[in-house]
Amino acid sequence: MKNFLHGLACIVSCMVLLLPCLAAAQGLGYIDRTSGPSMVTITSGEREILIEVQVWGQVTRPGMYKVPVATDAVGLISYAGGPTEHAALSRVRLVRNGFPKGKAVKLDLDRYTAAGDRGSVPMLETGDVVIVPTSCAHRVSQFAGFVSQLAVVITAYLVIVGSK
User: Of 49, 91, 107, 120, which residue is most buried, by most CB within 10 angstroms?
Assistant: First the structure.
């Protein structure tokens, strides 16, 4: 019986610790980062200039994108599949080469979605990086999940040690 409880405790502990990692890995998609032309032909036969920008953080498909020159941060997030449910749209940051080192512009995209004023969202330039951070509520939830998993492992250990 003691070996059975020990084995069960080990299995439960491994499952509790590994399942969130597996779920996160399944959510990762492949991003095609091959370089291509800076121009693209659109259906009307005209050519459109593209710029390379990046989006990181809480979007469906983070990565490097070639987007039309008239794209803003909202458009880039849309190209990346939109924000995840854990995105903090009120704290989006735009990092640009022309900014002083360590400086970024904070964008409140919650305000944009509430008012619909696209004038408050800057147009992107080549090399820009848009960072969509994780919401504080999600961070607290992640920490609570970690504490919960730790409690399971400690309980399993105490059960195993106490049964000896």
Answer: 107
